[in-house]
Amino acid sequence: MVAVIAPWKDTLTSGEHSLIFYSLVIAGLALLGYLLKTALSLSEVGTKYRPAVLASIGITGIAFVSYVVLVIKFDIGYDPKGSNWVPNSDALLSWSPRYMDWSVTVPLLMIELIAVSALTGALARRVRFLGVGGAFAMIFTGYLGGVVIDNGENLGALWLWGVISGLFMVGLYVLILFTVLKTLPGLEAEARGSYRNAMILLMVIWFAYPIAFGLQGFASGGGRTTAMQVVLSFADIVAKVGFAVLIHKVAKLRTAQDVNNGTDTHPEAVWMSGVKHSNSIQPSVQAPAVAAPAAQPRFRRNQK
Amino acid sequence: MVAVIAPWKDTLTSGEHSLIFYSLVIAGLALLGYLLKTALSLSEVGTKYRPAVLASIGITGIAFVSYVVLVIKFDIGYDPKGSNWVPNSDALLSWSPRYMDWSVTVPLLMIELIAVSALTGALARRVRFLGVGGAFAMIFTGYLGGVVIDNGENLGALWLWGVISGLFMVGLYVLILFTVLKTLPGLEAEARGSYRNAMILLMVIWFAYPIAFGLQGFASGGGRTTAMQVVLSFADIVAKVGFAVLIHKVAKLRTAQDVNNGTDTHPEAVWMSGVKHSNSIQPSVQAPAVAAPAAQPRFRRNQK
Amino acid sequence: MVAVIAPWKDTLTSGEHSLIFYSLVIAGLALLGYLLKTALSLSEVGTKYRPAVLASIGITGIAFVSYVVLVIKFDIGYDPKGSNWVPNSDALLSWSPRYMDWSVTVPLLMIELIAVSALTGALARRVRFLGVGGAFAMIFTGYLGGVVIDNGENLGALWLWGVISGLFMVGLYVLILFTVLKTLPGLEAEARGSYRNAMILLMVIWFAYPIAFGLQGFASGGGRTTAMQVVLSFADIVAKVGFAVLIHKVAKLRTAQDVNNGTDTHPEAVWMSGVKHSNSIQPSVQAPAVAAPAAQPRFRRNQK
Amino acid sequence: MVAVIAPWKDTLTSGEHSLIFYSLVIAGLALLGYLLKTALSLSEVGTKYRPAVLASIGITGIAFVSYVVLVIKFDIGYDPKGSNWVPNSDALLSWSPRYMDWSVTVPLLMIELIAVSALTGALARRVRFLGVGGAFAMIFTGYLGGVVIDNGENLGALWLWGVISGLFMVGLYVLILFTVLKTLPGLEAEARGSYRNAMILLMVIWFAYPIAFGLQGFASGGGRTTAMQVVLSFADIVAKVGFAVLIHKVAKLRTAQDVNNGTDTHPEAVWMSGVKHSNSIQPSVQAPAVAAPAAQPRFRRNQK
Amino acid sequence: MVAVIAPWKDTLTSGEHSLIFYSLVIAGLALLGYLLKTALSLSEVGTKYRPAVLASIGITGIAFVSYVVLVIKFDIGYDPKGSNWVPNSDALLSWSPRYMDWSVTVPLLMIELIAVSALTGALARRVRFLGVGGAFAMIFTGYLGGVVIDNGENLGALWLWGVISGLFMVGLYVLILFTVLKTLPGLEAEARGSYRNAMILLMVIWFAYPIAFGLQGFASGGGRTTAMQVVLSFADIVAKVGFAVLIHKVAKLRTAQDVNNGTDTHPEAVWMSGVKHSNSIQPSVQAPAVAAPAAQPRFRRNQK
Fold first, then answer.
1. What is the CATH number of the domain that holds C64?
2. In the complex, which subunits touch D with 3 or more CB pairs below 8 angstroms?
3. Which residues of chain D have pLDDT under 50?
4. Closest CA in chain D for residue B293
5. Which of E102, E63, E49, E77 is nearest to E210 (CA)?
6. Quick one: which of E115, E112, E175, E166 has its CA closest to E137?
7. Helix, strand and coil percent figures for chain C, each rounded to 5
8. Would you call C292 an interface residue with chain E, using a CB distance cutoff of 8 Å?
9. pLDDT averaged over chain C?
């Protein structure tokens, strides 16, 4: 077996330690900020597109919890020694929770993506099923090579499971492209632009993950670990918060379109960047019952 | 007394340790994700079926708390020793909270199941009472054999209480089948399919629990413990999240059906996988009071 | 002074330890489950009866926090020694928080009870005042005898304060019976049944508390402590969750009655066990202002 | 310098320890209970008076956090030694967080008070500004004498800053009386009674604080510390929860009055102690747009 | 390299320790109070201006978490030694989380500011993009000089990165002034006053940050560190809570204006300081569908 060094075993300089701390914490805080924002603005989006927003709430909520663990374990997982920080047995958990987070959030990302796309009914369900399954398989196989087998220090296993994971990644790209091509023609101009940007953003930023994975096999030292942690934190912000911002925009634009078409009602006007996209409109009222209820009496006080 | 070895007493290899950690954490995160999703989408379902959604919020909330404890105790309950992890006195609590979680969540599962079924009134209350009681008895008797008596290391007690617990399980299957057979004929085609799938899923995945229980008596070693923890975590995801997804689908379909029949109103349109199932419709307005209230004056500013 | 042994000073066998752990945790989880359920279904009940639901949210929220403390202190308050668990100085806090919880939740229970009863106006306020004060006095005097004076190990103080506490308990029973007798005649049949069941449940389960208190003076040993902890956990589930379930049912039935009578409006239909009790109905609309506001213009896009 | 002994330096008997623990915990639980209640019943009060309720949410939320710290630090800040408890360096934080809590919550109390009073516009803003500033100054100067200077053990500093703090207190009483006298004439009878009771309650209970402050200079010993902690916990319950209950009552009564006058609409009927004070009434509907939106088509299924 | 002493390395007197504790805790509590207030009053502001409120929720939520960390690390990061407190290796984290908080909250502040300004559409997006990017760059470069490079103890790096950070600050001032000048003419008198006050407040208080940064290079000792911590805590309260209060006022005034103009509907009346600014008004109702739904039957009980 050709041995490599796992990223949670490198000694860090104090500057590296400060940079990793910084990138872990701001990723966590950015996720928290978006979680609060999106959970409190759920009603801005019509019920048709709400699964996308609910998925992004799940994604940012789960990832926030994961970063809380990463930060705490990074804090207690390295001991100061002169001007360096030396890892102890807790340091593993400043790394491996990333895989556990991704195992749940990347499948949710596929649900988020499909919920604002034009696929419907049985086709939507089939693509969603494949996307969720493929995303999980991509992460789990990466975890096998990167952490489980020989503590992630076996170059052969890294290669083997990295390649298998990569194949699932290729499958996901195909699925995403299929969804995108089915969706783009039916969207109005403004929504089409945001939708396209969201998909490009996702498919570009995802390259950061295999690159970071590769560094586990082909480099070592504190600088390598710092690069991995900083890149992954940045990629998580982009893929979870940045992507969700664009998807949320698509969902709002499509909600306004549905209201303007008369396809759906929405109790609040849809505004974006100070521009109104649709009026507030309430549902039609149920026809009155045959026998009207007794009138609620007008009164001033002392009535039971 | 024939002694067996309790699962929280086995030494684990680092690979086994990583796999258990992974399965505990992703079960916890999946429960958290569904908890957020379902709590924030409560209004999608009509008040008739809301007890089902409230039950699934209780189930995922409680199970999430339980997994937080399992994860923390698994983290501090095993000490690294060379390339192995040796359990200490905290390791018991990386196992026994499962029974405490189930003691509350399996009864809630029965409530969830009945709330989307066709049983109503006194019959619904009677079946619910039996289901809740039987579910609790099934778990509590398992806890007696698996943890309380001789620390779960007495094969005779495992057999005795395992069989008693199994009898309650048989009773629950009968109760579920009775409910299902009463319900299926009255459902529309699409709801019937999801309802049937939910019930099959539940009755299949529940087999995982007695199998894991049996491993306590008939196997030992870290591989056995790993299998038990991974299987139980997976089964909890399926029985709690997967089942709830299907039940939620039934509840939404039945809500739409009630709106379309004029049986109930619903302020939001019901959409599923991009397909609209019912319009938004608001309740009829109360007849005006005899003496109309004084009109709210139109104004611009500076009024108290 | 005749000395007795406080329940937090007994050594426990591992079976006793497992049973207490189990009863504390499932009481906490049951409280959490009901807290989530009731907080998320607040709107099911009309504003008239909402104080009852808000009280039960306070009760289960506070008791849940109390059980979190009980569980944590029970976990760290006993050290394993051979096959036994020996208490340390933290063990007191696996017991005394019960009194602190009750000091706030039993007064709230009186508020919950009165809010669905027929007492109104000044009479309701007077009974509520007496109920809240008497409930607090009942618990506080019990705490003096059971914990404060000589660490709860003085038999004379146990007798003295136990009797005083018991007198307040008798007063509360009188107050509850007065309220019940005033209320029952005015309720419709179904609400009357649930209301009566709730009151019987409460007045029966409350006997568990003085019995457990008495065991502090007249028994000792781990079995005694186990009995006390299990009984009190069970009684808390019944008096807090079971009672609230019945009170919530009364509140829903009375809400439906008010809607059917035209006494109040309710935006959602009231359903219970699959049976509809009242339609959804919205409030009447304010008469239009003298000068109608300028119409919100219909448009497609690009407007500020 | 004449030295006194700070309250967090006294040794406590076990009875004193149990009484302080009790008073700290029940104050925290009472605050939690009211926080839950008031946050979940925000919609019961009209938007005009909502700043009062939002202020009381801030007050109870902040004070609850403060009591969590007080309880934790009291738990770990005293070590058992025979039948006594001896303070360690954590004991300071079982006392000083009170000042930090008050520095934010007493200014919020002034906002709460003014929001249900009759002052409006520029006058309201000016009184609010003075009230917030004076309240902060009153607490901060007390903190300087009671904790910062010579660890609160300098009698001269206690006198000096106690007197300055007292002068701000006198200013606040003047401000409150001014507000009350401006408000009382305009209120209806029932609201006037509750408003007056709230103000009397506040101005009486506030005397507890300077009395407790004085005990720091003129007494010592565990009994003194116990008296201070118990009195302050009780005063916090009264000034935060009791006062808020009365202010909430005023806000509800004034809301009902505004609905009955036609000054405002309110979607829910206002009920208090089983008596209805105003009907539910919804806002008038916007005049229809020139071009009506296309009708939402009636349908059964399979539509996008 | 000219060395300076980092602020987290100074020994503190007990008075300095008490003052820093006080300022950290009250900043945290003020942020918590405003977080609760603003999250629970979100609906007071129209959907057009809601991004401003959502941003302030993110800002106060993130800053609250950051202050929790600062307080905990300040508590455990200094050990008592005689009448002084000596920092240990945890003390760094009673300082550096400020930069992590600012890295996310200052960009959010730019979003908050722009959301109540008059910029719309593409111009709003461009200014927002520059504001977010510039704000992040300002903080990150400050972190490089103040913490990362040589532990913030290299005077040259402090100068270099301080100047670069200052240049970004100048850019932000230009951007803010541009936005303000575009916005002021279009606002009504009352909103214009609050808007102008908010912007002056922000641009004045921001000077506190570079002044505190400068103290790292040109002063040392516990008094210096105390001044830095107190000033930054105060500045955070003003820039996060005080600024948000004014922005919220602008958003409410503009919401009322939109309702009065007929530009938007709002289900609640807008009241400020006891003065009504606009009536409650609901959206127009969707035209009835071609085929009216079957009427919801009037009934009493026992219907499914």
1. 1.20.1070.10
2. A, B, C, E
3. 290-304
4. D262
5. E102
6. E166
7. 70, 10, 20
8. no
9. 93
